Amino acid sequence: METNTVHQQTIFVKEINVKNLTNPVHFHNEYELVLITQSKGRRIVGDSIENFEEGDLVLIGPNLPHVMYNDKSYYEPENKQPVTATVMYFRMDWLKEEFVHSKEIPQLHDLLLDINRGIKVYGDTHKQVVLLLNQLIASKGLGRIIHLLSILNLLSESKEYICLSSLGYTNPHNQKDVQRISKIYNYIMANFTEDISLETAATLASMTTSAFCKYFKARTQKTFTHFVNEIRIGHACKLLFDDHLSMTEICYQSGFNNLTNFNRNFKLYTRLSPSEFKKNLKI
Hints:
Elements: H1 3-8, E1 11-18, E2 31-38, E3 41-45, E4 48-52, E5 57-60, E6 66-70, E7 83-90, H2 97-100, H3 106-115, E8 119-121, H4 123-138, H5 142-156, E9 161-163, H6 175-191, H7 198-204, H8 209-220, H9 224-239, H10 247-253, H11 259-270, H12 274-282
Antiparallel strand pairs: 1-7, 2-5, 2-7, 3-4, 3-6, 5-8, 8-9
């Protein structure tokens, strides 16, 4: 992120066009809106882990840790799948605190509280936000602020978004933590389809295994095993779209070593069995 440029502007927009996403876990003082136009993978916002795909639209509050990883195929040397996205950073320090908390616009105050947890926008609201975003990009000066306020007004009156990180989540990281947790996340994302070693992760963090387990739980609100399995189940959900793969193939390609373990974890995270999930896809 062009930090200096962002600090100098109330609103800063950039277009991303790369082979794959490589940014580490990060957080900053600005609000961040991300519209994925071409790309697939996993998105981590606070303690939320979800799949993302083309059209994904999220709004992330200040100092909320976040990172996106593409599917493994994007990191292969022969990859020709483009990664394109529009990212808008904006500050709200020009908007006086008493205005945000005024009785005339209580919805804005509630919206900003939700954005502090990260929100994912969908439905007709998604389409309208994308339209306003494109108009904002084409505008200059005060016009950009007017379109930003239109986006916030639209979201404040809408119910078509979901909060990502859990209620009460607070950023437990400092900048040193971010570098350490990025190493661990990168290890997990590169190896979740195979055996994942707790000892290796602890070594990457320069900790004993017992100290690492406590550290990881404090930083992510999840145990190491829970986090890894959540990544694996998200990958399995994608594989279930493929009618050519058997349940056994999906099980092993997602990093599980037997069907019983796979079925138990799948139902734990999705509240459906793999076969029920696939049936719902067809419906």
